[in-house]
Amino acid sequence: MMSKLRTLSALLCFGALTASAQYNTLRIPDTLSGTTFNLTARDTFLNIMPGTPTIAGSFNSDFWGPTLIWNKGDIVHINVDNQTADTTTVHWHGMHLPAIMDGGPHQTIPPYTSWHPYWKVDNNAATFWYHPHLDMKAEEQMNMGFGGFIIVRDSAESALPLPRKYGVDDIPLALTDRRFDASNQFVIAPYGDSMLTNGVLRAQYSVPAQVLRFRILDAAIERSYNIGFSDNRTFYVITTDGGLLDTSVALTRLLIHAGERYEILVNCTGQSGTTVNMMAYNSTLPTGGVAGGENFTGGPFANYLGHRDFNILHLVIGAATGTGVTTVPHSLGANVFPAASTAALTRNISISDSTGLPGILGPNAFILNHRLFNIGYIDYHVPLDNTEIWSITNSGAFGHPFHIHDVEFYVLSVNGAPAPAYQQGWKDVIFVPSHQNVQFIARFADYADSLHPYMFHCHIALHEDEGMMGQFVVGNAPSGIMNIAQNSKMKLFPNPTKGMLHFEMEQGITIVHAAIINIRGILQKEVDLHTGNGAIDVASLGYGQYFIRLTDEEGRTYIKSYLAE
Ligand code: C2O
Ligand code: CU
Ligand code: CU
Fold it and tell me: What are the tens digits of pLDDT across the range 6-60?
């Protein structure tokens, strides 16, 4: 009997369900709270398919790391320990923080080293996430399972009558999909054949008959999900990526794109003893232009879930908890967004197909501003405290979820019209449909640093890796000496540091002198050396911000700032 069931479930490893399919219990990630957090990146084995375990990777667990719970106003310290054989980075998606704490492609964590960023949590209560962001490796490392949720709480959200019993009536859902090869291993591919909800195939969960809050994240490499329920019930969007909406918005379908988060409320009051499925109604997506709507029958984008409806989560509704929320609140807050008239400038960003670019890319790549990402090139210098409109025009045949680091923005228009009500909140990812224009407004307050850039990119990891990314620094234009292209030949880690500061130069560069200079420009320490890779002991210099200046055999200098704890 058991083996028959196993065979059956092996055959039904796809997200689409038949009546006889076997469900697996949804995994709820552990939580970590407080102000100090330890994340260890490891290779893991995942028992997800019958037979051979799947080699995966994760922080602290088998697949998809712990949920970090932060309070607005707290200073959080994170210890990220990379116990894998690959360099990685950890980006705190949506957080407003200093660029060197951001965990983008510049904050590399080499194998068996650690990184210790810290900052004051300044974001409003909402659902955020963390994930690897290594240049050209985002798809591969996210595909392995590295990532996790961040829940920010604040006093305004806490005062509202919302469900917040984690794992009971407040349930995080990371949506993604994977393809498995014949030996149960993940295939690195933009689209998977099997839906994974919190890393679980054919997920089901028992929930109380009351108002449920789902924190939905599109953690997929590429796919968008058109979310709805099998009984076509109405549900209520209460947050966008970066905070609460002013009022809850009733919907029966919610299209979510890679990188986006929405929290929704689903009223199951009085429904004990029934079941309902949360579904992706992707058969209703256009067959071109929205990720997951296509119906490829062959090639690298072919997948079982393309242009189909499939299950995300089977809900088994049981007795209410007794203390649960039973009505959906309408009024949630009063956001104040910057008015278009306060913008100092408008930046025009183009999205186009790369066809015709000389031989670097495959036929399916897309680009921003007609150029490929170059880690040594800064696209924009944003003056500190500037309020700006970013106007993104997509001339291509495919829609892209555009993401910006550092800020939460407000969408002014989608193709000339106001954004739909459920997008009228703070966001950090916005879908730019094919042949349309999207404009958002954001204020770039705090954290001027002309040496360390923030990124903007398409959140489809494949596109990002292929070069659909740019970067900006906040603060004044760097002087000649702070040459980003030159500095990008130097890797510095860990940053912040407590003692040793390691540098790693591009192949062929030999450093002969290192100087540590404090923020007032006063020389603190100098060392003569002769190496491409080295380390300097900076423990005795004390807490603060410093610059390291390396000089090579030809007299060229490389400068970066670092923080000492
Ligand atoms: Cu979630 Cu730059 O990324
Ligand atoms: Cu981000
Ligand atoms: Cu894209």
Answer: 333 334 444 444 444 689 999 999 999 999 999 999 999 999 999 999 999 999 9
Ligand nearest to the CA of 260: 1
Residues 277 and 293 in one domain: yes
Q: Residue 72 has which token pair?
A: 């607005």
User: What is the C-alpha to C-alpha distance for residues 216 and 170, in angstroms, rounded to an integer?
Assistant: 11
Nearest CA to ligand 1 atom 3: 93
> 266: CA distance to ligand 3 center in Å?
31
- Tell me: do 126 and 229 sit in the same domain: no
CA distances from 338 to 335, 440, 473, 508 (A): 10, 10, 21, 48
Q: How many domains does the chain have?
A: 4
Diameter of the chain measured on Cα atoms: 76
271-311: per-residue pLDDT in tens? 999 999 999 999 999 998 999 999 988 888 899 999 999 99
Atom of ligand 1 nearest to the CA of 429: 1
Ligand 1 pocket list (CB less than 6 A): 91, 93, 131, 133, 259, 403, 405, 455, 457, 459
Tens digit of each residue's pLDDT (9 = 90 or more) over 504-531: 999 999 999 999 988 777 788 999 999 9
Q: Which domain holds residue 514?
A: 488-564
Using alpha carbons, list the distances in angstroms from residue 106 to 102, 262, 266, 482, 490: 9, 29, 40, 16, 10
Among 157, 147, 463, smallest CA distance to 329 is for: 157
16 within some domain: no
Q: Are residues 318 and 179 in the same domain?
A: yes
Atom of ligand 1 nearest to the CA of 131: 1
pLDDT 10s digits, 90-127: 999 999 999 999 999 999 999 999 999 999 999 999 99
